[in-house]
Amino acid sequence: MKRRLSQDQEFQIMKLVLDKFLWIGIGIMLFGFYQLVQGQINTGVGWIVAGAVVLLLFIILIIRRYEIMP
Fold this sequence. Notes:
Number of helices: 2
Distance between the termini: 38 Å
Helix content: over 70%
Order of helices and strands: HH
Strand content: under 5%
Number of strands: 0
């Protein structure tokens, strides 16, 4: 038999998952910034855009899941 989670338990698990998305997005953007500093402008900008996409997915997940109105 499956056990149902309370709303608070579900929120705590979701926070852990979304926190990982946030760290991954920031890490990707920092790597892109490092590439910019090293002089590889096209590669750096590409990594920064990829990080921004991850962070946008993070925002979309939060808005859809918790029905937050921007």
